[in-house]
Amino acid sequence: MTESSHFKRDADEALTTLLRRLSATGDDFGFEASIEPGGLTIEFDEQPAQIVVAPHTATEQIWLTSGPKKCKLNWDVVENAFVLEATGQTLQEVLEETISRLVGDDVSL
Fold first, then answer.
1. How many domains does the chain have?
2. Domain range for 82
3. What are φ and ψ of residue 2, in 5° steps?
4. Are the C-beta atoms of residues 74 and 83 closer than 8 Å to each other?
5. Spatial contact of 64 and 39, defined as CB atoms under 8 Å apart
6. CATH label of the domain that carries residue 56
7. Is residue 80 part of a domain?
8. This prediction's pTM
């Protein structure tokens, strides 16, 4: 398997896992998640906010965008997850923090 196919597999698995966790939590916090071509989108019922989590094949990163905030996460073999190098947070942790800030409550996926 080539390196790019490893990235695609890891990215697809990460987004699918997040979608499952977000779908189980969304009703409680007023958001809806869906996978569309190009990535995972989270839209909120009470505000015009949107979060996009998208694989970026050229750099082999997952990019998370929420308004002006953009995070670029790399695959970490030790964590077996995409990680934000600056903080050591996994993609799930970054997403939990971002959603929590938007809804004004602690969200755990």
1. 1
2. 3-103
3. -75, 165
4. yes
5. no
6. 3.30.920.10
7. yes
8. 0.91
